[in-house]
């Protein structure tokens, strides 16, 4: 899936090293934790405003096949039922998985595209996993998606080699590890981890929380 030229030449040396560091953080993360529903630095959220009765937190990676499947098969209905109606606050937290340097670059591109386009770019990158499986270098897909979001090739390159942004990503991964996140996708509803992440499984927990007095 990974194009070595992209991994070790097109990104900065720090970004390539960070990929290994992020993967190590994920591997060392514990298996328990509360998955705090409170806001953390760098959160990307849509739906209801902060302080909503129900907050759903997803930890995901743009290189995770299961995450791409969830966003393809469950997200459209989930979004229509809970996000667009502002019944819940949906928080997306980035947790790069192997190849972590590609995931990191993807998340950086989504952030560089701006908050208004962030979720659309995340979805486009997850969709591009099919291209990678067919032999398209990830860098080619990421550059195309960045340009479709309005970034020039030069802006794309600056984006994926931004050391301050990469350092902030490392901090977010450490925060996820502290919450006990060890894989993706991982979901929490009001701080409680949910194992059944089908629409039905999530709805059972969300609807019960919404119905509470």
What attributes characterize this protein structure?
alpha+beta, Glutaredoxin, 5 strands, 57% helix, disordered N terminus
Tell me the radius of gyration.
Answer: 17 Å
What is the succession of H and E elements?
A: HHEEHHEHHHHHHEEH
* Chain oligomer state: single chain
List the domain count as a whole number: 1
Shape: globular
Mean pLDDT comes to 87
What is the straight-line distance between the termini?
Answer: 48 Å
- Which strand-content bin applies to the residues? 5-15%
What does this molecule look like?
The chain has 11 helices and 5 strands; from the N terminus they run H-H-E-E-H-H-E-H-H-H-H-H-H-E-E-H. It is of the alpha+beta class and 213 residues long. The chain has a single domain (4-211), classed as Glutaredoxin, CATH 3.40.30.10. The chain has a 5-stranded mixed β-sheet, with helices on both faces. Strand 4 and strand 5 form a beta hairpin. Helix 2 crosses helix 5 and helix 2 (13-28) runs parallel beside helix 10 (163-178). The termini are far apart. Mean pLDDT is 87; it is low at 1-20 and 27-35.
Layout of strands and helices, then pairs:
Blueprint: H1 4-10, H2 13-28, E1 44-47, E2 55-60, H3 65-73, H4 75-83, E3 89-94, H5 100-113, H6 115-127, H7 129-133, H8 138-148, H9 153-160, H10 163-178, E4 186-189, E5 192-194, H11 199-211
Parallel strand pairs: 2-3
Antiparallel strand pairs: 1-3, 2-4, 4-5
Helix pairs in contact: 2-5, 2-10, 5-6, 5-8
């Amino acid at each position: 899936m990974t194009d070595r030229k992209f991994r070790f030449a097109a990104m900065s040396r720090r970004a390539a090293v960070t990929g290994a560091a992020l993967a190590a953080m994920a591997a060392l993360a514990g298996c328990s934790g509360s998955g705090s529903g409170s806001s953390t630095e760098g959160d990307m959220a849509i739906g209801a405003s902060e302080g909503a009765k129900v907050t759903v937190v997803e930890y995901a990676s743009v290189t995770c096949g299961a995450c791409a499947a969830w966003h393809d098969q469950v997200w459209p209905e989930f979004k229509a039922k809970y996000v667009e109606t502002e019944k819940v606050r949906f928080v997306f937290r980035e947790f790069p998985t192997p190849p972590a340097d590609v995931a990191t670059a993807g998340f950086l591109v989504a952030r560089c595209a701006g908050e208004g386009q962030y979720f659309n770019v995340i979805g486009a990158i997850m969709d591009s996993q099919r291209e990678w499986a067919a032999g398209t270098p990830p860098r080619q897909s990421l550059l195309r998606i960045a340009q479709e979001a309005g970034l020039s090739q030069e802006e794309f390159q600056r984006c994926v080699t931004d050391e301050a942004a990469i350092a902030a990503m490392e901090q977010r991964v450490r925060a996820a590890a502290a919450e006990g996140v060890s894989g993706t996708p991982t979901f929490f509803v009001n701080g409680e981890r949910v194992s059944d992440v089908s629409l039905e499984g999530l709805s059972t927990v969300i609807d019960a929380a919404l119905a509470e007095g």
